[in-house]
Design goal:
Elements lengths: L5 E2 L33 E10 L3 E10 L8 E10 L3 E2 L1 H7 L1 E2 L3 E5 L3 H14 L12 E5 L14 H9 L18 E2 L2 E2 L2 E10 L2 E10 L6 E3 L2 E3 L17 E8 L5 H13 L13 E8 L18 H20 L4 E2 L5 E2 L4 H10 L2
Parallel strand pairs: 7-8, 15-16
Antiparallel strand pairs: 1-2, 2-3, 3-7, 4-6, 4-16, 5-8, 9-10, 11-12, 12-15, 13-14, 17-18
Helix pairs in contact: 2-3, 4-5
Length: 355
């Protein structure tokens, strides 16, 4: 059977966490409360839907000007390694990001990486490139999609890369989040940002999550199950998901410091109840927007000034996960399993009754 055609990335009408009074922390967000609030970062999705067989896609995070000849400082942290982060070992070894970061379904990750290599080699200025380290993360969307069909093709990858833009970022059941589920609910892509003063200057940190992990949701200090908010008790499915968390910042950090940020990105999942189960791959990738080796710009910040940035990433990841749950849509997969998004109204009623 041929791959499904791309479905236009929807503009979710469901409220985000901050819209219903569940914004996390005291730091202000950027104008879009999204990864794209970090200057020079664009996001694109290709969404593939052929109900009930396929709910999948690819998401592209595209920093302006990144290339093998102009890498960005980056760091990786693996919370639990049951997953694939293609290119992760070289990022860890060299502290350098050479390509955009792509997210997709587990069995599509390898085709996506090959397409990213082709796209990179085709870019102007890369005519002499002989080695590329494509960075591709994945989640297992087999609960709600025919994962063995491997529906993501080269044209879908290129569409996400070429269509990446700044401004608002579509969340929920789009791109790499189309078929993912987390904490008993339908989940997907979520994003958030924070602005803060660091070392005497204002900086921005943004995150994007591909949420697909097990555990029991926690909000405002209490657990929230689907039954608590009037949804059916979800049928048990294998805990084989991965949560990919990508963070970007314009703060002047080196690769070692960005690795510390990546640690906090994974730690933040515990705030929302992540189980870090045997079958869950929990990965954090953090990168900066100032290219390696460029003399322009401020000096790297001392480590003892980074605490506010660590708070920012913890808060932003927690809110991004909530956004992924609230903005998703009810999805039934090829085996009849259904996951529902977190409903805002019943959730607020539950939290109000809990005081």
């Amino acid at each position: 059977m041929s791959a499904p055609a791309p479905d236009p990335s929807p503009s979710p009408t469901a409220p985000r966490a901050r819209d219903i009074g569940l914004g996390v922390g005291d730091l202000p967000t950027g104008p879009y409360n999204a990864l794209t609030d970090v200057p020079g970062i664009r996001v694109g999705h290709t969404t593939l839907i052929d109900p009930p067989r396929v709910h999948s896609g690819v998401t592209a995070i595209v920093p302006d000007g990144v290339s093998p000849a102009r890498p960005l400082p980056a760091g990786v942290f693996v919370g639990n390694g049951y997953g694939k982060l293609l290119g992760g070992t070289q990022v860890s070894e060299l502290g350098a990001l050479e390509t955009p970061v792509l997210l997709t379904s587990t069995l599509s990750a390898f085709r996506v990486a090959d397409a990213l290599v082709g796209w990179t080699l085709d870019r102007p200025g890369n005519e002499g490139v002989r080695s590329v380290n494509p960075v591709v993360g994945e989640c297992n969307d087999g609960l709600l999609s025919d994962i063995r069909s491997r529906p993501v093709r080269e044209e879908h990858v290129r569409a996400a890369l070429e269509g990446a833009s700044g401004g608002p970022v579509a969340e929920g059941c789009v791109g790499a989040g189309t078929g993912t589920a987390a904490l008993g609910f339908k989940a997907g892509v979520g994003t958030s940002s924070r602005r803060l003063v660091l070392g005497g200057g204002e900086v921005t940190l943004g995150v994007l999550v591909q949420a697909n992990f097990g555990g029991t949701l926690r909000i405002s200090g209490r657990t929230v199950t689907p039954v608590d908010v009037g949804l059916p008790d979800p049928d048990a499915g294998p805990d084989r998901g991965s949560c990919m968390v990508v963070a970007a910042t314009d703060a002047p950090l080196d690769a070692r410091q960005l690795t510390r940020v990546a640690h906090r990105a994974v730690y933040a999942l515990a705030r929302v109840g992540a189980g870090y189960g045997h079958g869950s791959g929990d990965y954090g990738l953090a990168f900066g927007t100032r290219p390696l080796g460029e003399a322009a710009g401020p000096a790297v910040l001392p480590d003892d000034l980074l605490d506010p940035l660590f708070v920012a990433v913890l808060d932003a990841v927690e809110e991004a996960v909530l956004n992924s749950l609230l903005t998703a849509t009810t999805t039934t997969g090829p085996h009849g399993r259904t996951r529902h998004p977190l409903p805002a109204g019943p959730l607020l009623d539950l939290l109000a009754r809990a005081g």
